[in-house]
Amino acid sequence: MKIGVMGHGPIVEKCLDAISKVSGSQAIAIYNRPVSAKEGEAIAKKFHLEKCYTDFEKFLKDDTIDTVYIALPNSLHYDYALKILNAGKNAIVEKPFTSTVKETEHLVQIAKEKRKFLFEAITTCHLPNMKALKEHMKEIGELSVVQTNFSQYSSRYDAFKNGETPNIFNPEFSGGALMDINVYNIHFIVGLFGEPESVSYFPKKAENGIDTSGIAILQYPNFACSAVAAKDSESKGFAYVQGKDGTLKINSHVSRCEELIITIGQTSKTINLQESDNHLVYEFESFTKVVNEQDYDTCYKWLEHTRSVMKVLEKARKFAGILFPADQQ
Amino acid sequence: MKIGVMGHGPIVEKCLDAISKVSGSQAIAIYNRPVSAKEGEAIAKKFHLEKCYTDFEKFLKDDTIDTVYIALPNSLHYDYALKILNAGKNAIVEKPFTSTVKETEHLVQIAKEKRKFLFEAITTCHLPNMKALKEHMKEIGELSVVQTNFSQYSSRYDAFKNGETPNIFNPEFSGGALMDINVYNIHFIVGLFGEPESVSYFPKKAENGIDTSGIAILQYPNFACSAVAAKDSESKGFAYVQGKDGTLKINSHVSRCEELIITIGQTSKTINLQESDNHLVYEFESFTKVVNEQDYDTCYKWLEHTRSVMKVLEKARKFAGILFPADQQ
């Protein structure tokens, strides 16, 4: 996979570090708008990228790039992914995949028509410890309650409280705690149990209508899950799955699933199958394998999962009256 | 306070042990139905109680008893509390206080008319660590999310799964996880923040309609709380209050509040103001002080809190379609 990246946030550097650790994958170019040229150049230099673009049309026409990684504000994911697929390249889109289910469905349709690969860049589903948890699910017996918490005080929350509106707290940019951070918990829950029967969302809302934290409830036929996320407060993250015969616990945010603790009766054991200090390595290993083996079935199966997650996010938003410009499209 | 107790479950023994540790309070009698005479006699012997009744009318007419502690199935709390108040005695009623708000309001009215003391026997509100948490609330800044979990696998759940219907899993007896165990979380939350704006409840229901576990959501004007409780699975209990500047954590079920951890930024400190190994001691100290000082104001203030909790329980039940015979009264 020959990758061109779009964007210049911390996630771009983390991603380039991950790509450098995955064999069969190589980052060769970066694109940023002229206003962010310096940031792009600095990243290109740090990660020894061959090319540094500020002209999107030229970036798009670079035939040495087969796959584009899109790390732009949430509201731009759809437009750029569409342009990239239409230009005949594969697209890797940062979470949250798009603003709406409709946008997701359209991108999937185009990817299939063009026979291109399309991925959501989300750590959770590709982590070995998450897969281990899935395999041990049966041991805890009939499910009772599931709780997750991913709360990370945003570096931009103080500015927001002081009257600025960073993208991540802006409905115009499809921001908010649900889209930005609860999306991990929802990937975790939907990854384990599929699409829920119903979704409710109880957010803390700022004056501009955006959610800075909140509790989402995903109901399944015989149990309920709570997904808590906050960008306005900090916590030790966790995921807790309670069954009749025992519990499964992730002792960190589910974006990392650092450690899995299985407790049956009085006995606990800890599993950790992850060696890398960069938890993005696992998703890029997955993408690289799928692309290099031309495994469209797996790619489209993952997109079905992404669509289920998008449906939960959209139901949660609508339950709580959080609307984006993309909802009017 | 000269106390007569009704019932013979484990909570009665725990309560008698607590009373024996509180100065100004003394248990002198026990009442049980003739069918449970042996259990009553064994407890009377163990705790050196002067009298052991199986005739309720005689028990009621015993003038040496001024206060009756009612540890009967939930659905019987109201009827017996009413009889006891009408007989001119104070009543201490095990949680959940009654089956409905209407029953609570009627008992409160009668207690006031008769100028008697009426208490809900609930540990949470009277624990020193809970009071400490309340005092430290301001330090964590603007509230974001609150989570509690109290899950204790019921010794009667296996029998229930095998087709029996113990009182605690029987709607006829006002049973279920919400009434029996989530009531602690709700006392905790209402104790901190008062009555919520709205209440939702997402239970796991058995075939007879009773909730064996569930997630209650209490919404306040600018934040939400989740109260998780299960009798069909086990967990390490906790309460987690997240604010803009820090977190408050109870590292046990809120019925005990064993330890309070305050984290502001990178700094944590642990507080434990509770020395007794019997956490029921604190509520009986409170009741004894109020009765011996004839402090009706405090008693009625606590009853207002109990009424708020009952309103939450009733709203939660109705949200989830859990109905008791008492709802028809």
Automatic annotation (TrEMBL), chains A, B:
InterPro entries: Gfo/Idh/MocA-like_OxRdtase_N (IPR000683), GFO_IDH_MocA-like_dom (IPR055170), NAD(P)-bd_dom_sf (IPR036291). Residues 1-119 form the Gfo/Idh/MocA-like oxidoreductase N-terminal domain. Residues 138-248 form the GFO/IDH/MocA-like oxidoreductase domain. It holds the Pfam family GFO_IDH_MocA_C3. One of its GO terms (molecular function) is nucleotide binding. It comes from the Bacteria. This is Gfo/Idh/MocA family oxidoreductase. The lineage of its organism: Bacteria, Bacillati, Bacillota, Clostridia, Lachnospirales.
